[in-house]
Design brief:
The protein has no helices and eleven strands. It is mainly β and 115 residues long.
């Protein structure tokens, strides 16, 4: 119903930056909320950030001031700009959407922060 494909993950040094992208198969104007979660080995999946169709954003305390979620409705894409990356940010990052079509998840993209 709604397919999500993440991209932009990779290996980056501490203090570096990455920009993750999540492309949706349909207009995100109809999607109430899009979000990024992450899951590190041995840890539970946690919410990183979310954004509503109205542009309201929320960021986890652990990433506040470093990460920024945004939407580009024309491109049906949500982004996660990650700055000042720390080794503890290492995880698989997942994009999700919540709308009238239900909740959907992408397959994830690996982010590794290491020197």
């Amino acid at each position: 119903q709604v397919q999500l494909v993440e991209s932009g993950g990779g290996l980056v040094q501490p203090g570096g930056s990455l920009r993750l992208s999540c492309a949706a198969s349909r207009s995100i104007v109809s999607i109430n909320t899009m979000a990024w979660h992450r899951q590190a080995p041995g840890k539970q999946r946690e919410l990183v950030a979310r954004i509503t169709s109205g542009g309201t954003t929320n960021h986890a305390d652990s990433v506040k001031g470093r990460f920024t979620i945004s939407r580009d409705n024309a491109k049906n894409t949500v982004y996660l700009q990650m700055n000042s990356l720390k080794p503890e940010d290492t995880a698989v990052y997942y994009c999700s959407s919540n709308s009238a079509w239900g909740t959907h998840w992408g397959r994830g993209t690996q982010v590794t922060v290491s020197s």
